[in-house]
Amino acid sequence: MGDQVNELLSAFSKLSPLLAEITEISGYLWEKGWAERNAGNLSIEVTDLFTERELVVGGGVRVATEYTYPDLAGRSFLVTGTGRRYRDLAKNAAAHTGVLRMDADGCGYELLGAGSGDPAFRPTSEFPAHLRIHEFLRQSRARQTVVLHTHPTELIVLTHLPRYRNGDAINRALWSIHPEVKVTLPRGLGLAPYTVPGTEALAERTVEVFRQGFSVALWQWHGCVAIGETVGEAFDLIDTLNKAARLILLCRSAGHKPTGLNETQLAELVQTFHLPE
User: Fold this and answer.
1) One of 7, 126, 200, 208 is an active-site residue; which one?
2) 126 catalytic, yes or no?
3) What are phi and psi for residue 119, nearest 5 degrees?
């Protein structure tokens, strides 16, 4: 299957801009220290980039999934591989990603191609969470196709502090420390209580966050998941939030409890930038 995989990927020139963006963003994640070892993962629905003819492979090994995703039947995804490192993706994203196509009943997938040419390529261990999120995005007819997971340092620190374990409290603190946060994320982020990584329970809790209208889910003591129309958009959401978290911690480390923007000032931002209430 190796030669067939390489031939298929070489024909996937449509993925080149996407892979270039992944390469760029992966470098930022590594440089920021948000991607220790093989931390973090990424998936993007790419179904609409190809014609049906281009996706006919045959001969690929079918891998059954533990759970069923009927709304994703026949859909294709570019996904990072298990055990892959963002620092390596930053050098060559194609070599550490694969394209998978869900089967006709949504109970498994076939590997269409892996940049490494490895027929035994397997997606990230968080793939169940990614599939549940993509399922939700499809069901809700959302425009986002990117699911990005990483470990932003300061945001994780906030989840260890009791005062920020409440969604209202952490969002109020993040909005008030810098106006850019309110403008960029007028709804803030959604908190998901700590759940064992890679489990269906974590997937369900994450989807519940997005169902409430958030674009970023903060996994307690673990990391962040963001959805976006592009990899850069998803990264920007987390980057904005983590900058705010860092400002909060810097103020507190200097012995000052930041007061930040008051309710009147936040309301002015809502009015000026026509933000949702």
Assistant:
1) 126
2) yes
3) -70, -10
